[in-house]
Write a structure and sequence with these properties.
This is NfeD family protein. It is found in: Membrane. It is a multi-pass membrane protein. Keywords: Membrane, Transmembrane, Transmembrane helix. Pfam families: NfeD. The structure is a single chain. This protein has two domains: about 1-80, no CATH class; about 85-145, OB fold (Dihydrolipoamide Acetyltransferase, E2P), CATH 2.40.50.140. Strands 1-4-5-3-2 form a five-stranded mixed sheet, with no helix packed on it. Strand 2 (about 105-110) and strand 3 form a beta hairpin. It is rod-shaped and about 90 Å long. It is about 45% helix and about 20% strand. The protein is α+β, with helices and mostly antiparallel strands and about 150 residues long.
Length: about 150
């Protein structure tokens, strides 16, 4: 029993290693949080603190990790990048208008290597020929565009 009290840090490290390996099987991110708590217990034991304090430190760190760190990690793992497919991939692209475009006289623009019918996003606007526009929406086979501000000298 003397060896156990003198080498409590090694027992805590063993518990942390066991929990870390068990996490590889469960992939729940619970056991790894408990393993971090066990590492806190190991550090406390290496500092020579009594067993009750080691247990308290391990418990507080484990609960803190489970309450504060795990939810953020799980949220990041479960939310992937926003996937846009089909015509939605064209939103945000820029194109040049070869002809004037208005709501009553739609024009054509080339975006993403394809020819699209285009109308102004703002229905009261007329976009002049040769204007650089950005695609704001795609509805059906029509791209709704808005002119980009230009820097003129």
């Amino acid at each position: 029993m003397d060896w156990l009290s003198e080498n409590a840090w090694a027992v805590w490290l063993g518990v942390a290693a066991f929990l870390g390996i068990a996490e590889l099987v469960s992939l729940d991110l619970v056991l790894v949080m408990l393993a971090v708590g066990a590492l806190g217990g190991a550090v406390t034991a290496a500092a020579g603190a009594p067993f009750v304090l080691q247990l308290l430190v391990a418990g507080v760190i484990s609960i803190g990790m489970l309450a504060l760190v795990r939810p953020n990690i799980v949220r990041r793992l479960h939310t992937g990048p926003e996937l846009r497919v089909g015509p939605e991939t064209l939103i945000g692209l820029q194109a040049l208008t070869p002809t004037a475009i208005s709501v009553h006289v739609p024009g054509r623009i080339k975006i993403g290597g394809e020819d699209w019918q285009a109308k102004p996003y703002d229905e009261s606007m007329t976009i002049e020929a040769g204007t650089l526009v950005e695609v704001l929406a795609i509805r059906g086979a029509t791209a709704y565009v808005h002119p980009l501000p230009s820097i003129e000298s």
